[in-house]
């Protein structure tokens, strides 16, 4: 039985570390592709003005949390502009059916002709819309976003390494507990030290070299993202405080200071 536990521990350690190394190498070697023949650059949405980092609000959201984060940002942006009402029960209601850019118009289309829909359904319709796909394409073309072939990426691999480290520890404990009374289990337990060192060492290296982990932004994209702590002074529309929107784009719904908006997104499965 101890050999079975040891085999499981070694397999989990080697596989998870190999996946993390492959994800890190794939992300590091992404370079902006050249323009395709006959292709035209996709312009940034007019209403999503460029920030000091050179990224629009939508681009910051996508690089930080993917299309679902972008969907949350446009919903909150429209709520702060009084175009939508986001209830803390998880419903989105249209107040002003006029979108100022393609993503806002996509949000109104996702809500539908009835003018009201559950936020999870709106979010799922938005993430597959062409307007959001154009934001992703623009970032991938610039070498700032990870292509779909590279994801789930580094953060998922880091979670696997952490889980493998825990599995090694549990396997060692199970081996010690299953040992016969009076048996010398020291040599067998020593073999668990190697996969444990491997997983903890790989995890520490990833924490030092690759943190913050991202499933969406390349290394170049991470460098473009501003510091959320210093984003409060960035310019924005009069009806939408820059601090809350940029912090939402960078950190997600948990960073919202408005309890109603935070409850609306969290109650809807954000």
UniProtKB/TrEMBL annotation:
Keywords for the protein's UniProt record, in alphabetical order: Membrane, Signal, Transmembrane, Transmembrane helix
Keyword Signal set for record: yes
UniProt-listed InterPro entries: Ser/Gly_Cys_C_dom
Residues annotated as transmembrane: 160-177, 189-206
Signal peptide as annotated in the record: 1-26
Organism superkingdom: Bacteria
Protein's UniProt name: TIGR04222 domain-containing membrane protein
């Amino acid at each position: 039985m101890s050999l079975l536990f040891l085999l499981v521990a070694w397999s989990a350690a080697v596989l998870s570390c190999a996946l993390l190394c492959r994800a890190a190498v794939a992300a590091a070697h992404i370079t902006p592709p050249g323009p395709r023949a006959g292709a035209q650059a996709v312009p940034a949405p007019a209403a999503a003005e460029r920030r000091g980092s050179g990224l629009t609000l939508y681009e910051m959201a996508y690089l930080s949390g993917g299309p679902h984060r972008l969907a949350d940002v446009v919903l909150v942006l429209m709520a702060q502009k009084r175009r939508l009402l986001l209830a803390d029960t998880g419903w989105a209601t249209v107040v002003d059916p006029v979108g100022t850019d393609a993503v806002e118009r996509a949000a109104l289309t996702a809500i539908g002709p009835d003018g009201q829909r559950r936020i999870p359904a709106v979010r799922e319709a938005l993430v597959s819309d062409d307007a959001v796909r154009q934001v992703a394409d623009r970032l991938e073309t610039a070498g700032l976003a990870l292509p779909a072939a590279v994801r789930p990426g580094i953060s998922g691999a880091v979670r696997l390494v952490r889980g493998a480290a825990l599995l090694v520890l549990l396997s060692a404990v199970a081996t010690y507990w299953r040992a016969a009374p009076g048996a010398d289990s020291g040599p067998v337990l020593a073999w668990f030290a190697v996969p444990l060192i491997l997983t903890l060492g790989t995890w520490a290296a990833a924490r030092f070299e690759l943190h913050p982990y991202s499933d969406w932004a390349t290394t170049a994209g991470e460098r473009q993202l501003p510091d959320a702590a210093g984003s409060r002074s960035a310019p924005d529309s009069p009806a939408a405080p820059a601090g809350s929107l940029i912090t939402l784009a960078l950190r997600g719904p948990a960073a919202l200071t408005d309890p109603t908006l935070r409850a609306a997104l969290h109650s809807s499965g954000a």
